[in-house]
Amino acid sequence: MHVAAIFPQLVPAALSLYLRWFPLRQALSRNPIEIEGGMATETLAQYSLSEFAVDVRLGLTKDGQKEIPSKYFYDEVGSALFEVITTLPEYGLFRADERLLRENAETVAETLSPGQVVVAELGSGSGRKTFWMLEALAKRQPVVYRPIEISQKALEQCSKGSGQLHNVQVRPLQEPYLDGLLSVAAARRPGDQLLVLFLGSTIGNFESRAAEQFLSEVRRRLVPGDSLLLSADLEKPLGQLLAAYDDPLGVTASFNLNVLARMNRELDADFDLSGFRHLARYDAAERRVEMHLLSTRAQRVAIPRAHCSVSFVEGETIWTESSHKYQPEQLKQMGCRNGFRPIRQWLDPEWAFAQTLFVAE
Ligand code: AVI
Description:
With 361 residues, the chain is an alpha/beta fold. It is built from 13 helices and 14 strands. Strands 2, 3, 4, 5, 6, 7, 13 and 14 form an eight-stranded mixed sheet that branches.
């Protein structure tokens, strides 16, 4: 059986065309179809491995700067490393976000009308900091919490934590953000109000144009009067920025290098991790911290399950992530350009970080 026979139903048309030559045995054999296990989850797992192989091949064999999308950081090992990053003294983003939520959750709750509120969180992770928001809302009205995540493990953790709260019903969705939000919108009952949480400055991991497009896609899934709470990291002194992405313990370096280890695990690649080092740098014109993996010598790497091998010259990098940094006003304008009206903005006094509350127009 050839992958072309099933991919048209699973992936966008262009990707389906690209995948035509992938023999099914090689592309999918690690995730055999188990009908009893539940079709949706199995389909997602197969799709993910093939998508990873395609993105690796595209990103590492293209002309110019080699790239791997940052979404591939978050396998089980990467997600655990990210949890550690959030506790590092140099990485102030997570704590700033949590402080703002704790202090302002009541005010956000006051802006909502009575009746049931559906809280859709895009990329909930373990949902640790969302607790404050759910607690504040649940004091006033019934809450349905819909964490949207690709990672099954994160969803389980998240459900365990928030499931304890009185007046909160947790209904997780294992889907990509926009698909998940579409499912939430489709399931809403008349009178339900939607509050979308997009926390952690994940918006900063999108390229500028993609961030705008993403906000506009979020807006398309809402109705006037729904809300969006958006967190974003702000510009700050260079030393502070770089330390946040290159901590002295080397946790962020491991987080970055794990994407090579993941290719070894899942795509049978033969990356020698000692031939690469973590690099964090700031592009002042684009206002973003970039993470790269720098090849410390000339080398060639085989990635059999992505059907390619790749050469590196000494000093060449793989660009693995961008984290854009904003000015508060810029965030309000981004919302306005995409169908939202900013109604409140809070800045953290300890770490330059903003939460902006928008209403869908
Ligand atoms: C998830 N995201 C907002 C983090 C960031 O700061 O861009 C990911 C991260 N990369 C390195 N450290 C943390």
